[in-house]
Amino acid sequence: MSISLLYHGFGLRDQEYLKTEYKSGRVILHIQTKTNALKCSCCGSKDVVRKGIIEREFRGQPIGLKPVVFHAYLQRLSCSSCGLVRQESVSYADEKKVSQDHLPGIV
User: Fold this and answer.
1) Is the pTM of the predicted complex or chain greater than 0.70?
2) Strands 26-33 and 66-79: what pairing?
């Protein structure tokens, strides 16, 4: 699978494709933000240092009859500009939502 499916099929930009798994009738796409796209979720600075990974799953649009799940490896980032340590923000998830069930552009 190429990164073009993430971009053209699902509209996910700045994401790096890692691998695909097929489990329990689901298609699981493992993704992470490209290194050159990492920035502070508070001030937007690109002067950040990685401080660990948090794994989360997001539901995507199905491919045919198969449900799609994005298994995202989200970076915890320490910002050298503002001094905060925060999880990276992702364009495909609404940070105000507690539930992972509804995402803009991804159902």
Assistant:
1) yes
2) parallel
